[in-house]
Amino acid sequence: MNNAPNVFLDPNANRFQVNIINEDHDNTETAQEDVGSDPPHYEETSFTDETHNRLRISYRPGKRELYDNFRQNGEKTEASLHPYDTHSKMYYLQTFGHNTMDPVPKIDYYRNTGSVSGNKLNRPSLLEIHEQLAKVSEKERHNFSLFHFQTVNSVRCMLNIWGVMLFIRLSWIVGQAGIGLGVIIILLATMVTSITGLSTSAIATNGFVRGGGAYYLISRSLGPEFGGSIGLIFAFANAVAVAMYVVGFAETVVELLKESDTLMVDESNDIRIIGTITVVCLLGISVAGMEWEAKAQVILLIVLLVAIVNFFIGTVIPTNTEKKARGFFNYQASIFAENFGPDFRSGEGFFSVFAIFFPAATGILAGANISGDLKDPQSAIPQGTMLAILITTIAYIAVAISSCVVRDATGNVNDTIVPGMSCNGSSACGLGYDFSRCASQPCDYGLMNNFQVMSMVSGFGPLITAGIFSATLSSALASLVSAPKVFQALCKDNVYKGLEFFAKGYGKNNEPIRGYVLTFAIAMAFILIAELNTIAPIISNFFLASYALINFSCFHASYAKSPGWRPAFRYYNMWVSLFGALLCCGVMFVINWWAALITYAIELFLYIYVTYKKPEVNWGSSTQALYFVNALDSALALTTVEDHVKNFRPQCLALTGAPMVRPALLDITHAFTKNNGLCICCEVYTVRELPHCTPAPVGLQGSMNSGMEKKQAWLTKNKRKAFYAAVAADSFRDGVKSLLQASGLGRMKPNTLVIGFKKDWRSAPATQVENYVGIIHDAFDFELGVIIIRISQGFDISQVLQTSFHIFFFLITESTINTIQSMHVGEFNQRLLEASTQFKKKQGKGTIDIWWLFDDGGLTILIPYILTIRKKWKNCKLRIFTGGKVNRIEEEKLVMASLLSKFRIKFADINIICDINIKPNKESWKFFEEMIEPYRLHESCKDMPTAEKLKRETPWKITDAELEAFKEKSYRQVRLNELLQEHSRAANLIVLSLPVARKGAVSDYLYMAWLEILSKNLPPVLMVRGNHKNVLTFYS
């Protein structure tokens, strides 16, 4: 085999590189028929600008021309090569030496369903590979992104950052704060945006980025709760920002009309008219498609750059008398020195000036907001965002330093200094002008007074006006595109159920036309009626909230230490991101404290709403990763803590089978484990007896594996705080034994086995009875407590649920149970259905009767106590029944009352039963004898050889010797049932000490007869036996 050079030895190799294994000359045609012909698409590559190195391929002679033609044209050819064809027989034979289904690594296996960049392929399952060899073929399709402007991210970011602030407010900021503090203000704002840019770059390079911008980045990192809350306000902020920028443009136009005395109506209505016309034009550009919008942005950027260059040219053109009177003297050291320090006026300070400037630094997410339209967002977002921040910061600082204008000027050309005139010592005095009267009366010119300083300084004033037009229109256009894109992504995820109408896209680029119309309507409303000066601080805080969450997302993902957090962009730090998040929150209050509070309130409300609705999405967020880390750390920390009786809680392993099949057993177990202990619903799949719920004959393991997630989902959907576990075993007992030994984690492992009473023990095969009793013995062997629960109708409702579809696919809830009878009137047992829901209902006033006959460590008394603190059982009082001597009834009551008071367990009554050990009446004993008759050996009535033979053939039968040996114990069980009938017939629940059968001495059928007669014809019964270790204590 002719192998390609080993790129793994190349230290300069990039993240994704592929070597094609060259086919043998004799097999070229065969290989070409088998391999796919669609070109691979590598949008999920690492962050790098060397696109030509992303795919490094080794060629055999004569194939390079074919590949070059393929790269240039992107067209299929009969001889085209696919470097990832994993289903070609020739590929496998030459790579591995035999035909196999095992696929080689391929990017399409890791895509999400519905990926816009290519179809998700399903690799063969482990079961398919393990069980049999099968030919699997997938037709691959790759959808190329339609938007190929790699530089558009930088263009959009720069246009949004370079706003009207650069042209009409920066001079005032320098006048107030001075050049020194002005540069610090710019750098402080840049620090916020730079940290956010680094965090954005890290998140954007941690996997393929779809449309949605800030919403997509935050939601996929922190989950739908944070993403959904910030996505809605971020989209709204962009929609209102359209109105703000358009009004800024309209105001500038109206000022020009006012100067030429050509107003149409009046200033306010002219702003509305021009704003409406502008928004309609911008909407037309946006709806035309991203290509037209990008071209418009490039044109606007050129105009903006020309305007900035025009300003710097103006600073070196020799000034004239008129400009000198307005305070412009070209570059002068004295002016620089005078303007370097601050001169705050009119109540302004450092933070108030910073609050005015900071909105100029926003706009760094303009490119990320159209992430779905970028050819390679993983590369474009980091490069474009950081480059835009760098260029715009340099421009802002350069303009601030190039302040060639004094703070105050009169504009009067006659305010020159003549010989003998005294001056105030300002830099203007040294340059021949006296502007000292500006200290006592308002002046119209200078950095502090004239917002049109850049127009005056520039070489050609109208170009600055054009720059203002360009800045406002470009920002408006960017916001008009961003808002629908973000909103469409939010609606596609269906986080808010009522907004899916806006998820539909149109055309080849999936344009959100409906979103454009909604954004247009919002913008028009605020242009026509809103008070933008009031809403502007809230909008700025909305953007800052997005920045804060992006920084926090980066920190959170790093802190969670998830293996899935592998950003290709390495120039970030989790603590810097956290600092950036806190900095953004601080800046929100600096800009406007009440707007910050409103922002937090809205975000909190939306967060609570999304959390309450619980959208059915799973994005692998860092929140999930942190849950796992915290759970793991807590579990490990718990292993170092020794068990203490005060912290005992029942941690139950409940043999429910499929939890929806025995809902009552789960309900009563959940009643004393919810928010208190561990509950594991267990199911055993046996080889000899595949359960009737198996959906198809896919094998034992297939049946088990395919149902685990669905059954756990059923528990979650029905608000049962329990886990589901299943094992496959040769027998039921072997499976339960595995569960008893291996279930749980560290200290969080079961200490109590909960099972339902085997109601059909008399008709079931002997092996089933042996397994049932055997698991009770096994639980005692592993030092677990045992709870056997019996209700009159039994727990298994599978016969009710069984329809033409198998039980495996049902999700039974209380509401659906109530509708079953109307569906199949003659087929269901209504009493069985009612019994299956009896523990879901609130128990009325009544009693829980506790027959605490044997001290098992206190589990028999602890379980009913826990039930009484539950909402559904709180109206039930505890009645205690215990054995005693007839001549010591009062003393026994006092002893029991004293013990329970020390345990701080409230009770309604204590009854001392003195006649437990007397013989039962003849009718009861006769019933017991008739019940065990079919299972007796009667060896005393047979000769010795026959008796020995029967013992060997039927070892499970009850011998006469065994019955005689345990006759007193049998009497006791029958007598207890009589007493239970007498005292506890009306109880809501009976909790009874479970009799223990000695291994090897008591046969399975005799023990089952004891349990049968003990709990027969009674309300729900819990037969409890602890592991004889204390679970109660009266010590503090």
From TrEMBL:
- Which Pfam family would be a valid example here? SLC12
Q: Which gene encodes it?
A: SLC12A1
Q: Which GO terms describe its cellular component?
A: apical plasma membrane
Q: What is its main location?
A: membrane
Similarity comment text for this entry: Belongs to the SLC12A transporter family.
Q: What GO terms are given for molecular function? A: sodium:potassium:chloride symporter activity
Which protein, by its recorded name, is this? Solute carrier family 12 member 1
User: Which residue ranges does the record assign to the SLC12A transporter C-terminal domain?
Assistant: 662-803, 822-1036
Note whether Transmembrane helix occurs among the keywords: yes
**Domain Amino acid permease/ SLC12A positions:** 155-653
Topology of this chain in the membrane: Multi-pass membrane protein
Where is the protein found, in the record's own terms? Cell membrane
What highest taxon heads this organism's lineage?
A: Eukaryota
Q: Which residues form the Amino acid permease N-terminal domain?
A: 85-137
GO biological process, alphabetically ordered: cell volume homeostasis; chloride ion homeostasis; potassium ion homeostasis; potassium ion import across plasma membrane; sodium ion homeostasis
Q: Which UniProt keywords apply?
A: Cell membrane, Chloride, Glycoprotein, Ion transport, Membrane, Phosphoprotein, Potassium, Potassium transport, Sodium, Sodium transport, Symport, Transmembrane, Transmembrane helix, Transport
Q: Which reaction does it catalyse?
A: K(+)(out) + 2 chloride(out) + Na(+)(out) = K(+)(in) + 2 chloride(in) + Na(+)(in)
Which ranges does the record mark as transmembrane?
A: 166-189, 195-218, 230-251, 271-291, 298-317, 349-368, 380-401, 460-483, 513-532, 538-559, 571-595
